[in-house]
Amino acid sequence: MKTDKFEFSCQTCGNCCAGDSGYVWLSEEEQLKISKFLDLPLNEFLKKYTKKINGRITLKELRKSENDYWCIFLDKRRKCKIYECRPLQCRNYPYWQNLLNDDELLKIHSTICKGMILNDKNIF
Q1: Are 72 and 49 in contact (CB under 8 A)?
Q2: Is the pLDDT of residue 29 over 80?
Q3: How far is CA 121 from CA 9, 103, 109, 111, in A?
Q4: Dihedrals φ, ψ of 111, to 5°?
Q5: Among 39, 45, 85, 95, which one has the highest count of C-beta atoms within 10 angstroms of its own C-beta?
Q6: 88: enclosing H helix or E strand
């Protein structure tokens, strides 16, 4: 995906997988793919790694401190344990529509994401 607002090159820092609490929504296909990757039956994967919010499945988070939540698959080195089969939502970051449509939110994320370089001409 192209954007004139920023350049992006993932630095695998894990910053997008930690911080404020949030949701990583999983499709049925992604649930199956991750459970297979982890060599777990689907029901075991769902019980151990996910929760249901308003009828949808999201990955669990680990609370590290008051305002610091980590994706359950972020390891101590801040690397994704399921990187090869991570959900589409994770693969698409930072090209989320809400970021592309909100320059203030984009500025905030650019301070978090080490791989995002804003094009000042198109943001400020």
Answers
A1: yes
A2: yes
A3: 19, 12, 17, 17
A4: -80, -20
A5: 45
A6: helix 88-92
